[in-house]
Amino acid sequence: MLIGALCYRWLLPLAPVLPWLIFFMLFFTFCKVNPLDLRLHRWHWVVLAIQLFCAITVYYALIFFTGNPVLSQGLMLCFIMPTATAAPIIAGKLGGSIQNLTTFTLLSNFATSLVVPAFFPIVNPASDMTFWSAFLLILSRIAPLLLGPFFSAWALRAGYDWYQKNRMNPNTQSTPKTFVLPTRLAVIPFYLWVGSIIVLTAVVTETVISTINYQLSTMLITLALSFLACLFQFGVGKLIGYQLPAPSKGRDYQDVLVNPAAAPTTMAGVSSITAGQAFGQKNTSLGVWMANTYLDPLASLGAAAYIIWQNIFNSLQLFIAAHKK
User: Residue 133, Cα to own-chain centre: how many angstroms?
Assistant: First the structure.
């Protein structure tokens, strides 16, 4: 993050590379997951409902008490943004369930593509968007980066399993090998995430600097409230996951090969980590884009500030988890 902020002028030309970093980051992550293991659980629906409720409530509360549309829209973005595509990577490092968080990431992003076209015209009546045009535009931003790597990994798994099944001698009693991502490749998504953070922080720094002439008090309040929103969502998500634990083992689940960090953890602990990342780790680049496309562009400061807080929080979580081993 410091590299991205201090060297943003030189890193901004790398912004077009960001979607490819995210694509391959998700591809290697989804290679760890059997699509047959993706199931909806109770905490998925609870977290999604609270996320949407908070987004609408925060917007109207701030409009009522402050009358400041930029502040209201910026904080609303902190809640309505869907789960980050990188969330399963961090959850896996912390001991969460990659399978359950992948399921929620798909659900959250699809729900956002439905809710935003219905709600944003109310927030910004000046916008000339229609529901279907906005829905298809947002889906076109989400689907390639989310479904592309998902189906690519699924095709690789299916092709490998088919090859193993057909190369076996029918006279032997041995069972064909199932697809498992090699250990040496399992760490690649984490380093791709680090690279994406550097580039994304450069983009965020440019966004903040471009709004530096805006009212200083609004900027400081946005920074402070986005910090509180970050803590609230991570904390509430962890509480929901702990209270509504979900099985983290699928049909071909292998503790050591799928997610070594989750093996020694209780079901409630795994769900707590998973739901915390699901609620707290946001797709901030999508939030910045939505603000610039459908809202007051200055509202993107809320999403820009959130990326700083969520990645500081994630870094602290990773630091603490590493020192517990």
Answer: 24
CB 53 within 8 A of CB 119: no
CA 295 – CA 260 distance, rounded (Å): 42
Class of residue 37 by CB neighbours under 10 A (exposed 0-12, middle 13-18, buried 19+): buried
Grouped pLDDT means (10 residues each) for the chain, 325 residues: 86 85 80 76 93 92 88 90 85 85 88 82 70 75 77 81 68 57 72 84 77 71 91 95 74 43 64 92 83 79 87 90 76
Domains of the chain: 2-165+176-324 (1.20.1530.20)
This prediction's pTM: 0.81
22: Cβ–Cβ under 8 A, 6 or more apart, which residues?
85, 86, 145, 192, 196
φ, ψ for residue 282 (rounded to 5)?
A: -110, 155
Other CB atoms closer than 10 Å to residue 307's CB: what's the count?
27
Q: Which residue has the tokens 């960090």?
A: 261
Amino acid identity at 152: S
Q: What is the residue type of 158? A: A
69 exposure class (CB count in 10 Å sphere: 0-12, 13-18, 19+): middle
